[in-house]
Design brief:
GO terms for molecular function: calcium ion binding; calcium-dependent phospholipid binding; phosphatidylserine binding. Ca(2+) 1 binds at residues 24, 26, 28, 68, 254, 256, 258, 299, 304. Pfam families: Annexin. It is a single chain. The protein has 316 residues and is an all-alpha fold. The chain has helices spanning 13-24, 31-38, 43-57, 61-68, 71-81, 84-97, 105-111, 115-129, 133-140, 143-154, 165-180, 187-195, 198-212, 216-219, 227-240, 242-255, 261-271, 276-287, 291-298, 301-311. Helix 5 (71-81) runs parallel beside helix 17 (261-271) and helix 16 crosses helix 18. The longest helix is centred in the middle third of the chain and has 16 residues, at 165-180.
Length: 316
Amino acid sequence: MSTLSIPQFVPPASDDAEQLRKAFSGWGTNEGLIISILSHRSSAHRREIRKAYAVLYGEDLLKALDKELSRDFEKIVLLWVLDHAERDAVLAYDSARRWGPGDRALIEIACARSSDELFAARRAYHARYKRSLEEDVAAHAKGDFRKLLVLLLTAYRYEGPEVNLTLAKSEAKLLHEKIEDKTYADEEIIRVLTTRSKAQLEATFNAYNNAFGHPINKDLKSDPKDHFLSALRAITKCITSPEKYFEKAIRLAINKVGTDEGAVARIIATRAEVDLKQIKELYHKRNSVPLVHAIKKDTTGDYEDFLVALIGEESA
């Protein structure tokens, strides 16, 4: 469910391209004009603007923006202009190359997208970087994380609603046994999390709760300093309740000592046309303050203005 505010009348893509060209002309860049156009255009229309700009001026709009903008504002605008699959490819590339145990971008791409969206991101990665995503992840992640992430990113999960309740109960028992034994990186845990459909995993986690009296994530919190356990918790939450996962992720990014601007930009850019409305509602309920107010308090300048435009002002 998109929060994007689309005007009732959207001008032709060529008109928007001309206006953006004007924003780049003269003595200084007109950031306000850039924000007013790009933050109020759908993904399909942004794609047409980019095509029109290339036809009119013989240059990729992304390159023009890259020359004119800087810092966090540049990053969020460039992410926003990219197609969804291209955006995921860029985020995955950055994450793979600087990967650390606390990084969550690859898990989000693997678990919060549909199978077709993940496949499209892998294809975009291959086209853009001339090698596979799993190749780069395998080169930079180590040990158990490498095994987990490569299997997550190469999965093509069944997307239908059908579940096998008998299987859910048996795999809930299996997961419980492995977690009790503290063999968190066991191949059976990884197999279940990386191959089962989201509906089947939800049934398994429900069976876990019913059989053992508490959610699986409670048992995965046994060692809060264990990064692998934290990754497993992120996977289970991202698969079953992506809006709750992203509410917490953006809350933690904002509340850090020194805001994690990369995480904020990634979450807003990737969820604005998906489920940002629900994320905003959850954030307000959880924190007693609207997300847009938290963003305004924590960011400044053109970067703040662009994020606020994507999130949408609160009506109350």
